[in-house]
Specification:
- Helix content is 51%, strand content 10%.
- The radius of gyration is 21 Å and the shape is globular.
- The protein has 2 domains: 2-77, no CATH class; 88-233, no CATH class.
- Strand 1 (10-14) and strand 2 (23-29) form a beta hairpin.
- Strands 4-3-2-1-5 form a 5-stranded antiparallel β-sheet.
- It has 8 helices and 5 strands, in the order H-E-E-E-E-H-E-H-H-H-H-H-H.
- The protein is of the alpha+beta class and 235 residues long.
C-alpha cells in the first residue's frame, strides 16, 4: 500500500492470479483487502470471475485467504528508491554468479528440476512419459520452450560486456531454440508428434545439445569466478 501510495506499482510474482505468476498491482481498495491490477489472464473466468474495476483493472478481493494463507505462496516485488547504476564489472560478475547457480543447481524448488537437470528431465519426459491426451504434453512443451527462447537475450549482454566466448555459445543456443520452435510450433498444430516417440527424438536431441552447451558455459563461468576470487584475495 505504501508503494502504491508513492505512485510505484508493485509486482506480485505468485499468488494473485493463478494462471500466471506475475501481476502488476497499481491500486488497492478496502485497506488493501482488494487489489487492483493487470494480468494477461485476468479475464479467464475459471480462474478469476470477479467483476473488473471501472478502470479496467481486475479486482481481487480477500487475496490473502485460502491457498495463499495456507501455503504462504504470495511473492511480492516492491521497487525502492532510485539508486546509482552499479559499475559494469560488478553487474557482469553478479550476473555470472547467478548464471552459475541457475545452471548448476538441480532444484531451486521442491518437485521442480533446474538447470542441467531440467534439460535432461525434459528430454527424458518426451521420450518415456505416457499420456492419454496430447494437450497436456504439448502445453508443457510450449511453456518450457519460452525459457529456451529467452536465452537469445543473453547474447548481446555478454558481447557488450566483453564475454564473446559465452556470447558465441548462447548464440548457438538461440539458433537451436529457433529450430525447436519450427519442430513444435506454438499454435497447437503438431499434436501428431506426440503419438510417436520417435518423432519427438529430434526435439529431445536438441535439448541434450543445449545441455552440453550450458555445461561448457558452467565450466567457463566457474573458471572466471574462481579467477576473480583469487585476484581479489591476492592469491
Amino acid at each position: 500500500m505504501d508503494s502504491i501510495d508513492r505512485g510505484v506499482p508493485v509486482i506480485t510474482l505468485e499468488g494473485v492470479i493463478n494462471c500466471s505468476d506475475a501481476c502488476i498491482i497499481s491500486g488497492y481498495d478496502n485497506d488493501g483487502k482488494v487489489l487492483l491490477g493487470y494480468n494477461p489472464f485476468m479475464n479467464v473466468e475459471d480462474d478469476h470471475n470477479e467483476a473488473p474495476d471501472d478502470t479496467g483493472y481486475f479486482r481481487k478481493t480477500d487475496w490473502r485467504e485460502g491457498y495463499n494463507a495456507e501455503w504462504n505462496k504470495v511473492r511480492i516485488l516492491i521497487i525502492g528508491d532510485k539508486c546509482e547504476k552499479p559499475d559494469d564489472k560488478i553487474i557482469l560478475n553478479e550476473t555470472l554468479k547467478l548464471v552459475q547457480r541457475l545452471i548448476r543447481e538441480e532444484s531451486l524448488w521442491p518437485g521442480q528440476y533446474n538447470g542441467l537437470a531440467a534439460h535432461r528431465a525434459f528430454a527424458n519426459a518426451l521420450l518415456t512419459y505416457e499420456w492419454s491426451d496430447n494437450f497436456e504434453p504439448y502445453l508443457n512443451t510450449m511453456c518450457n520452450y519460452k525459457q529456451y527462447l529467452d536465452r537469445q537475450y543473453a547474447v548481446k549482454f555478454l558481447r557488450d560486456n566483453g564475454r564473446d566466448d559465452l556470447a558465441i555459445i548462447y548464440n548457438k543456443i538461440a539458433e537451436l531454440a529457433a529450430q525447436m520452435g519450427k519442430m513444435i510450433p506454438q499454435d497447437f498444430t503438431a499434436f501428431d508428434k506426440y503419438n510417436d516417440k520417435s518423432s519427438l527424438k529430434p526435439y529431445s536431441d536438441i535439448l541434450l545439445e543445449i545441455c552440453t552447451l550450458e555445461e561448457k558455459v558452467l565450466s567457463l563461468v566457474s573458471s572466471n569466478v574462481t579467477d576473480e576470487i583469487c585476484h581479489i584475495k591476492g592469491v
